[in-house]
Each structure stands twice: as C-alpha cells, then as structure tokens.
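SAMPLE LOG
Freezer: B-3
Tube label: C17
Construct: single chain, 213 aa
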Amino acid sequence: MSGFMSLFKQEALKGTYPLATDNLKGVLVKLPSVTSAMVKTISAATNASPTVITSTAHGFANNDRVSISGAVGNTAINGRWKLASVAANTFQLVDIITGAAVNGNGVFSGSCYVVNLTTLQFLTSIDVAARASTSGNLGSKTFTLGVFSFAVITFTAVTTGQTSQAVVFYDDTPATDATKPIIAMDDGATNLPVLSNGGDITYTPNASGLGEI
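STRUCTURE (predicted):
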C-alpha cells in the first residue's frame, strides 16, 4: 500500500505544507534492519473471522494505524488498517474507514512486517543501517486532488545483496534526521521487495499516487 501519512496529507490538501518548495527524497528501506518500535515482525495470522495477528511484544495500541506487507497465503492482512483488540502479543485489524473486521483468507506464511504509521514521524526512526539507498531530490512534484506525483526517481548503483521492502519519502530540508519528517511510505509497489544487484533501481509514480518499482 502507498500513501501519505495522514497528517501531511491533510496539510498538503490545505496547502499549508511546502511540498513544492522543500527538498523531498526517497529512501529504500530494509524493514528487518529497523530497530525502532515502529516496525515489528508478524509471526502468525489466523485463518479466522476475524483474523488474529501475532507479533511478539509489539507495543502497539488500539486505534493505531499500521501498514502490513509480505504476507503469503493469508494475503487479506496486507494493506493499511487500524488496530483493535490489542493484547501484549496479538491484535486484530479493522478497516480504517468502515471499522469492519478483517477476516483471514488462507494459511499464513512469508516474511511479514507491520509498520506503525501512527508513531512513524521522523527519519531518525529509520536506522542508517536500514537505508539501502537514498535518492536525489524529487523532481516535477505535483499534488492534485489528493494525488502526489513526481518524476521517476533513481537509486543509483545500490550495493549488491540488499533486500528492501519499502520506500520511505521524507523532507530533507530540516537540518537533522530527528527533525526531517516522513511524509509517505510505500510498501506495496510492484516488485517489492526488491533485491539489489549493484545496478540502479528506479521508482515510477503511478496515477493512483506514489508509484511502482
């Protein structure tokens, strides 16, 4: 799934966030290498109604908004959701708009990660070791009717053997990682996860906003 963090989408729609003038960049992120509390591994997801997700000591709370990617078999859990029935090691998923519970649709497998979009705010949350490659400044930026787009970006000569599960977009204008806001994340683009081979990796915006690798 791709999209703006809710705060910045609201600000951009109001015209109060300087998307056009600030220096925005993308970074290829290796989710397993993120050590902050914003990213956790999912080890199980029941094929039940509703599905129950297991993520040991996740630290999340009811109503947190999350993005899940990488589930195989029980693919219904992939996407952007709100959390409900949160316990120490488990939680359930509900639709952000309707509040309807998410039901399982198969036997869970895969390398699956959950990102807490509620608490993911600044670049400092993404460890330097988790950043496979950073792009230059996004060019030809537009934000029309809620759709943010820009020119194709290139991650140049990405070191061989790195697997990235997401692309995170942030504002590089502030001085430090602790003050550079994350404005969007895409963990559902075509060909994610992507394994680097020493060559370039490109990311192409699409009509629905953000893009595909």
